[in-house]
Write a structure and sequence with these properties.
Length: 163
């Protein structure tokens, strides 16, 4: 069993260096990091977190965040943006994940408004198309999961032919 600490909005660890220090203080290979790109985009750059955390990352949330929406409508509004339309530089994040050798699951934890079943750009179909567009050598391409904020259900797809 591995304990994966996720960066959430509790202001506990605000920088990747603090996160590394915290995880390493356990002196155990069983304490690792569950990286959430959308949560760090509020105050930092996801690709820098990835490079700093490195092999400590065992899971990844693919989630978007908009600083513009945060500034205009309040902190939680920053999450109300479709994938690829926020402040995360996804090519840089994916390159950083490649650099650190991440080969685990990527969980699409994308916002969707209550009044519709799914926003077009945030739909699992478009997310899957994006993941399929990654170079064939990119290992996370084979591990896809979808999680919504409304139901907190996770559907996992381990079928390599679907990626």
């Amino acid at each position: 069993m591995t304990i994966a600490i996720e960066n959430v909005w509790n202001r506990f660890l605000l920088s990747p260096l603090e996160a590394v220090t915290y995880v390493d203080a356990f002196k155990s290979p069983r304490v690792r990091w569950h990286f959430d790109a959308g949560n760090v985009a509020n105050t930092g750059w996801p690709e820098q977190w990835v490079r700093t955390l490195g092999s400590r990352i065992v899971k990844v949330h693919v989630k978007e965040f908009s600083r513009k929406l945060r500034d205009e409508k309040g902190p939680s509004a920053g999450f109300q943006v479709d994938l690829f339309e926020g402040d995360s530089d996804w090519p840089a994040v994916m390159a950083a994940l490649d650099e650190v050798g991440y080969a685990g699951w990527m969980i699409a934890e994308q916002y969707r408004p209550k009044e519709s079943s799914m926003t077009p750009r945030g739909s699992p179909i478009l997310q899957r198309k994006w993941i399929r567009s990654l170079p064939p050598s990119h290992p996370p391409c084979r591990r896809i999961a979808h999680e919504t904020h409304e139901r907190h259900e996770t559907k996992q797809n381990g079928d390599d032919s679907d990626c």
